[in-house]
Write a structure and sequence with these properties.
Layout (H helix, E strand, L loop, with lengths): L1 H14 L2 H5 L1 H6 L6 H27 L5 H43 L3 H16 L3 H28 L5 H8 L9 H24 L5 H28 L1 H4 L5 H9 L1 H28 L9 H16 L3 H39 L1
Keywords: Membrane, Transmembrane, Transmembrane helix
Protein name: Transporter
Organism: Neobacillus bataviensis LMG 21833
Length: 355
C-alpha cells in the first residue's frame, strides 16, 4: 500500500504542473463549461485511473528503466519509433516550460528577475537528478499532500463565501475562454496531453516495482487524486467565478483573498509543482539515452539542464502555446495504443483461462 501511494503521489506531482495548480488549465477545460465541467472532471478521473493503472502495470511487466521498451511494445517497430521520438522531445519541452514558468512566478509573487527565478529552478532540478530514482519518486510524492491541503482550504473558503447564485455562476463561467468545443472534448483533451507528458515517468516508476498489482494500484491512486484535484479546483473557481474571471492564476487569486500569507503558501505550492514536473520530465528524458548507473549520467544531467535553461529564455507563454497544443494530438494516438494493448492482453488472459 505504501509503495502504491508513493507511485500515485509521484504521478500526481508529475502532472500537476504550472497550469493545473494555478487553475488556468482547469478554467479552460472544465470551468468554462459551467456546471457540466463537473461531469467533465468525473470523466477525466475515470480516464486517468484506467490509463495510470495500465501504464504502471506495463512498466512493472517489462521491468524497464526507460519509457522506450513500453512505447515500442505499444506501437510496434514503426509507430513505436514515432511515439518514442515525440515523447522524448516533449519531455524536454515540458521541463523547459516549467523553467520559464518558475521565472514568471518568482517575478509575479516576489518581484525577482525572471531569469534568476529560472536559474534557481534549473539548479534545484539538476541537484535532485543527481539522486537515485527511488529518492526522486519520494521527493516528488511529498509535495502532493501539501498541495491538496491548500486546495481543500481554498475550496472550503470559496463555498462559504459564495455571493452569487448557481445560475449566475453558470452563465458567467460560460463566458470564459475555453480550450475545447464542449465539456466532453475538453475532458479528453486534458487527459490526452497530460498522459502524453506523464506516461514516460509513470512507466519508469512502474518499472521500479516487480509486483504488477502494487504498480497498478499506484496508477489507480494517482488517477483518483488527480481527479479529486480537478473537481475541487473546478468547484472552487466555479462558485467564485465573479472573483477569478479573467485572472491569469485563479487559485492564487483565491488564496490571496483568504489572506496574503495563504497566497504565499499557494505560490510556494505552485513552485513545488513546477519543480516536480521539471524533475520528472528531465529524469525521464535523460534515462531514455543513458542508464542512471552509468558514469556519464550525471554529466549528461548537468548539460541537459543548462540546455533547458537556454531554451526557457524563449518565454513561458510562447512555450506553452507551442508545446502543449501539439502534445494533445500525440496523447490521443497514445491513448488509442494503450487501449488496444489492454484489450489484447485481456483477450489473451481470457483465452488462457478457457484453455
Amino acid at each position: 500500500m505504501k509503495k502504491s501511494l508513493q507511485i500515485g503521489g509521484a504521478f500526481v506531482g508529475l502532472i500537476v504542473g504550472a497550469g493545473f495548480a494555478s487553475g488556468q488549465e482547469i478554467m479552460q477545460y472544465f470551468t468554462s463549461f459551467g456546471i457540466w465541467g463537473t461531469v467533465g472532471g468525473v470523466v477525466a478521473t475515470a480516464f486517468f485511473v484506467f490509463l495510470g493503472y495500465t501504464l504502471a502495470q506495463l512498466g512493472a511487466d517489462l521491468q524497464t528503466t526507460s519509457h522506450k521498451g513500453v512505447i515500442y511494445y505499444l506501437g510496434g517497430r514503426y509507430i513505436g519509433f514515432i511515439f518514442d521520438v515525440l515523447i522524448t522531445f516533449f519531455l524536454f519541452g515540458v521541463a523547459v516550460v516549467m523553467f520559464a514558468g518558475s521565472g514568471s512566478t518568482f517575478e509575479q509573487m516576489f518581484d525577482i528577475n525572471p531569469m534568476i527565478g529560472s536559474i534557481i529552478m534549473v539548479a534545484a532540478t539538476i541537484l535532485t537528478l543527481l539522486l537515485n530514482v527511488k529518492n526522486i519518486i519520494n521527493l516528488i510524492a511529498m509535495v502532493t499532500p501539501y498541495l491538496m491541503i491548500i486546495i481543500f482550504a481554498i475550496l472550503i473558503y470559496s463555498i462559504f463565501t459564495m455571493d452569487i447564485s448557481f445560475a449566475e455562476a453558470d452563465a458567467l463561467a460560460k463566458e470564459q475562454a475555453s480550450g475545447a468545443s464542449n465539456w466532453f472534448i475538453g475532458a479528453l483533451l486534458y487527459v490526452s496531453y497530460n498522459i502524453a507528458a506523464g506516461a514516460a515517468l509513470l512507466i519508469v516508476m512502474g518499472g521500479t516495482l516487480k509486483d504488477r498489482k502494487v504498480a497498478g494500484m499506484g496508477g489507480v491512486f494517482g488517477g483518483i487524486m488527480l481527479g479529486a484535484l480537478i473537481v475541487l479546483i473546478h468547484i472552487a473557481m466555479f462558485v467564485k467565478i465573479n472573483v477569478v474571471s479573467g485572472v491569469a492564476m485563479p487559485t492564487l487569486e483565491l488564496a490571496n483573498q483568504i489572506h496574503p500569507a495563504v497566497g504565499v503558501l499557494m505560490a510556494i505550492a505552485l513552485l513545488g509543482m513546477m519543480y516536480n514536473t521539471a524533475v520528472g520530465m528531465f529524469y525521464a528524458f535523460t534515462v531514455r539515452f543513458i542508464q542512471p548507473e552509468r558514469k556519464s549520467f550525471k554529466p549528461a544531467v548537468i548539460v541537459t539542464g543548462l540546455l533547458g535553461f537556454g531554451a526557457s529564455l524563449v518565454g513561458f507563454t510562447t512555450l506553452v502555446g507551442k508545446v502543449y497544443s501539439t502534445m494533445g494530438y500525440l496523447g490521443f494516438a497514445l491513448i488509442i495504443a494503450i487501449v488496444i494493448a489492454w484489450a489484447r492482453k485481456d483477450k489473451r488472459q481470457k483465452s488462457a483461462i478457457a484453455a
